[in-house]
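Hey, resending since the last one bounced:
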Amino acid sequence: MKDRIHEFLANGYLTATSIIKFDCFKSYEETTTYLQGVNKIRLGYLYHYSTLTYDADSEIPKPAEDGNYYNLPEPLKAICGDIWKTITEIHVGDFKLRAKVKSFFEEDKNLEMDDFLLTVGFKPTHQNMIYSNGVQVTKLSF
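The structure tokens again:
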């Protein structure tokens, strides 16, 4: 990894003199929640492994009081491994709409479901977080 970072520095893609790396072992989660009135659909992915790299001179994740990291800034680089756990919650009052959403899951058509939900008026919100258990933070200087 250090060789790759030196290559980025030499080519002008990276100007940092140090980076901070978050190695997450079953502790990085991305969630999208679709809201429409009282209807709520939540899709989450907890990754088996991920590495998030930040420029030490820019905004980096800060731990909350509980030790977890919430609302992460955009990393310079992100590598995510296999999905370890999938989180799905469907709270929709209309039977036909709920059946339609469930059919997208059964057919594994996530992009089509996203388009459909946006078309019928759902508003997406995105959140990502790092759980404090399973994360190692390392500062690398050049």
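The beta strands are 18-36, 39-55, 69-70, 77-80, 83-91, 123-130, 135-141.

Sorry for the duplicate.
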